[in-house]
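Task card 7
Instruction: Convert sequence to C-alpha cells.
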Amino acid sequence: MTLPTFVGIGVPRAGTTWLHDLLLAHPEIYVPSRRRELNFFDLYYDRGLSWYEKFFPPDHEAAKYRAICEITPYYFYRSECPARMARLPVERLLLILRNPVDRAWSWYALLVRDGHYEGSFESFLTQTRWPVIEQGTYRTYLERYLRYFDRDQLLILIFEEAVRDVPATKQRLASFLGVACDRFPEAAGTSVANESYLPSARRTYGLAVRISRVLRRWDADWLVNAAKRWGVKSYFGKAGRAESMAAETRTRLRDAFAQETDALERLIGISLDAWR
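Output:
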C-alpha cells in the first residue's frame, strides 16, 4: 500500500494550487494529478484507506519517487484531521500561510466568482456562513497540529515571500523533502494559478462549479478533467475582478489581526513583517 509521506494542510486561497503545480513539476515528487484536493482526512475518511490509496502509485512504481504527497487546504481548519494523520505514516506536513487580510478578500472573490455570494466585501465580513475572520486566526488551528507533530516535521511557507523568491522556495522544499533542488524546472512556480476573476456568464459558471463538485464526490474525475482539457472554462469569459477592498477596511482588518500576527510569529519563529 502506498500512502503519502507528507501532506499539505492549507490554507485555502494562500497559493496551494500554485504549490501543487510546483511540486507536480518535480520528477522525484509524486502529487496526484487525477484530483488536486483529495479531502480524505475530512470528508471521505469513512471510505477507508483502500479508497485513499487509489490516488497514489502502486508499490512497484512508488519506489522511483523520493516524496509522495497530497494537498488539501481545508485540512488546516478541521479539528479531526491532526489525529487522523498522526495514525498514518505521515512524516511531514506542509503549510502555506497568507496575510489574513488578503486571504479574506481572495475568499470573498472566489465565492462571488462561483455565484455563492453577491454584495460588497464589507457586507461579506458581517455574515456568519463563511467565518473568514476566524479562519485568519492561524495560531489556533496550528496549535492543534503541534499536539500531534513536532515543529521540525512542519514546513511553513509565507505566501508573499514564497512567490516573490521562487528559487529560495524551491530550495526550502527540496531540503525539507529530500529531493534535488536542481530538478525543479526553471519555469516552475513562475506563473499565477487559480487567479481571482469574474466570469462573464457568472450564474452558468457557478452551476458548472457545483456540478463538478458533485461529479468529484461520485469519483467521476475523468469527466471533470476532460472538461478542463477541452477548455470549457474559457467559454465563460472574463469580466474583471470582484470589488476591491476599501483602504479603511484594510486598515481596520490589519489592526484587528495585529495581536494574532505577533503571537503567530512567536509560535512559528518566522518573521511576518510582510503582513504588517
